[in-house]
Amino acid sequence: xxxxxxxxxxxxxxxxxxxxxxxxxxxxxxxxxxxxxxxxxxxxxxxxxxxxxxxxxxxxxxxxxxxxxxxxxxxxxxxxxxxxxxxxxxxxxxxxxxxxxxxxxxxxxxxxxxxxxxxxxxxxxxxxxxxxxxxxxxxxxxxxxxxxxxxxxxxxxxxxxxxxxxxxxxxxxxxxxxxxxxxxx
Amino acid sequence: xxxxxxxxxxxxxxxxxxxxxxxxxxxxxxxxxxxxxxxxxxxxxxxxxxxxxxxxxxxxxxxxxxxxxxxxxxxxxxxxxxxxxxxxxxxxxxxxxxxxxxxxxxxxxxxxxxxxxxxxxxxxxxxxxxxxxxxxxxxxxxxxxxxxxxxxxxxxxxxxxxxxxxxxxxxxxxxxxxxxxxxxxxxxxxxxxxxxxxxxxxxxxxxxxxxxxxxxxxxxxxxxxxxxxxxxxxxxxxxxxxxxxxxxxxxxxxxxxxxxxxxxxxxxxxxxxxxxxxxxxxxxxxxxxxxxxxxxxxxxxxxxxxxxxxxxxxxxxxxxxxxxxxxxxxxxxxxxxxxxxxxxxxxxxxxxxxxxxxxxxxxxxxxxxxxxxxxxxxxxxxxxxxxxxxxxxxxxxxxxxxxxxxxxxxxxxxxxxxxxxxxx
Lengths: 185, 424
Description:
Chain A has about 180 residues and is mainly alpha-helical. Chain A is about 70% helix and about 0% strand.
């Protein structure tokens, strides 16, 4: 924790190495989180790119208190919610009902390189209500506590635990049924 | 709750890698953003100094952007201590525009927890109105915009923009209500006025942020029409300038919540003057202004500009009177002395045809009117050569020829005319 405080302090002073270390430490986790939340590799890249750019410009505002991971995750989740809200406004189709939009055409500068497992997991997660998906992903991918997720979702911890429980059950069943289908084929 | 190890494993196995090239590109962009952000911070800290390094660039920027940069110093008038609040109010009423910060925290008295922390910036112009923006601070210290409020004095209207909801609310007032509303706004002049109207005491002299200040305090519940509950208001005034340095309002609503508001970082420039002797009028940016600009350029250089962009400004020294450049030099030498308003006015008038030309072309591009410009190959002798053209309707194009006469032609005729142009 003290190490992280030092890192933030150096970042606030404009230290390039500190920015590099923060970037290297969080980029894959954030890309994964954005990917499993959106199931859209291009959107995930844009979101994480945006989160890091905003972070780079935040030296003045960011404080030494609080955790860097929480800061970045909160920023990412807000971005994901904004994108969902914007899409919902401009597209009458419910996002969770939409077909997978995982990009198949990867250009040479595609940032994220996806494994088959993450593609499958992202697809399965799309069948969960978004709030449940957020809880599961924050807990599983970012090791966040229920308290932290409750603060993020501005609901009680009991609600978060409920979402987690229902989400896990549904995800387990979805993954199992997909596994069975794959075996049958 | 069932163990979640199976799902955790699925997440662990769901790998994601990164493309190194793209990775470096993202990091470079981050670095750039960080450096730019730090530079702008630096610039903000040095806001009283404008250093103009490149004369032509800076003059060009002034011409095109029209709105120039202001230079001001806090010229503080020294007085002895022993301040009356009336003097403070008089001083404030002399100021046309100023800016300050408001920080506020609200605490729930039942739980002792911080309910809300906000910070805002308020910009007040006595002539035009008030702009106030407020942000809340999340637990990680990042700022989330809450709302922005614009009070337009002439229109007697307030507009509040809620960014998170992407909505705004516009309220129009009649004269009487508007005057009352102004008093309720976060205008420190009214805060001082109210302090004067209430029973208040002097707190004597102290030092605040290195400034010698004198304090005033009221706990009179009449403050702010008794709307704030029990309260403690402290105003600290610079004994030299008689201007506010900090205003603190601690208020408590029953036994439910307490609020602490600090108004500070007053930025009160007292010596702003207009850069120009008259308000600047924008050039028309129409066909005639384009012709005027082209004519000016060809008369001064014998050619037409190669392209209609800011690059024209590289020729500024050829376009305006060399004496004018000399007169403008105070702006360029050390950035501290601006040219006098008449010189600036003369300069802006001189370059107006050029700004009109660039503006007209940019407008055509923006409006999708299919403009083309052939300044690279057409000279002032090219009587029948198309120098510039744009679409006016599906069946007509407007053309400015090399000798600056104009015609409206059909697309077919235009195609024939353009065929005869030398290759660019």
